[in-house]
Amino acid sequence: MSRTFKLSLAALTALGALSSANAMSFLEALEGTSISNTTFVRYTEKTGLGSAADRASGSRFQVKSYLNFLTQDFEGYQAGFGLYYNQGSGMPLSASSNSAHGDLLGSGGSHLGNGGGIADNLNMFGVSEAFLSKKFDEDGKYSAKVGMMFLKTPFTDGTMDRAVGASTAFKFGNTTLKAAAYDTWSSMDWSFMQTLGGYTAADGYTNNATPNSYGNNSFKNNLFYVGVEKPAVEGNGLDYKLYLSHISRMVDAAAYLDLGYNASGFRIGAQVAYTQFGKYSGEYGSINNAGLTGNALAYNGLGGATNVGNHKTDAGLFNNGLAKNAGLYNIQASYASKGSFMLKAGFTGSFGDSYGALIDNQGEFNLGGMVWHNMLIYGGNGASMFGSGGKNGTNLMVGYAKFVLDATEKLKLGIDVAYVGGANNIHGNENNFTLSSLSNKNTNFVEITPSLVYKLNDRFTFTSWYGQTVGDMKLHIARAEVKFAF
Question: Which of 5, 72, 102, 479 could form a disulfide with 32 if both were Cys (CB 3.0 to 4.6 A apart)?
Fold first, then answer.
């Protein structure tokens, strides 16, 4: 949703009379500029109820805002520019206490450019996008974009991951063909894990109580992808997304498929993601034992963490822990009755050496549940190749269901139920787990999460949920959020 910035000719003339001719030209350029904004304030309370002596509890405020500008169309050419601000994190940072005291000023102050440590990744203000685009026909069916932009794919976080390069899209009928080439890119999950977990030893393992400056870096490994997407026509028939990608010296080849069939509110679909890792010899090669075949980037920042907490130790990971490939699949059935209710149920499993087949820990993949892949301040749990699912010998199985009731025109009530099992290697502070689960990869539990969404008006929405896990993981998370968008 966006608003168009309008200036009358009289206003332009009046402002121009008070400024230079160049300023007049600038104001004319603003005519027809689209402006969009999303801002939310979020509060999260987390309580660990595991078997350790101390509880891993804390609370955290987070404020996040995006402000985007897109100029009017000048014979098919447009310029885009975006600002991004974040203060705090979506989860408590400390393993044993509320760390929100650092959210403002001091070490938690906002910054521009590179700095050091955890605060730089939690609290920041800067340019999120800066690009030029071109439509090659009147309908905009063929377009291209160059510059810095959000990395919007089904296997990345399209609101946080960014890249510098070029992308193009060609629409024919209901089908869109996409392609992109980037020479540098960043993953927010990677940044958090690198910052929270330092690498100093040659074997890639060290105590990571000290923040690591690598978290401020982007990848210079070229990323390429081609994709094709087709939505269901008027809610019926076939829909699909197919993406093929490659990352120099990191991923030899990766594929993502989302295929579904729709009929009168029903949808049955399947998803598959597969990644074949390459031989990494990039900018971190001297640290990560360059030349090893496998996911040499996986698991950064998850071993022996003081700040993050860890219920498994991974010394020797780079000798025998590298996954050469990762596979993930999902089957889901759903039914939605507009203005009444929505129900879905599915199963997520894995194949291959590991299940960390995505760049983001979730992307658009149906993982099921809400707590287990959102319990850390970064994407260490879930399907990220950089996280707990990137280690050799891991696997995942999740059975889940979700029900949402449209209680009123403005109020939606929901509940998520999920069983999470397998040798999933899920991480978190030891106080989130039973003692019996601390010495192996298997963490089996059930999570139950009721939620509500209340539309305050056309611009403001209130969301709240409370998640509880029972089994090997014992954890409560409560969240409340107010969101503004135009």
Answer: 72
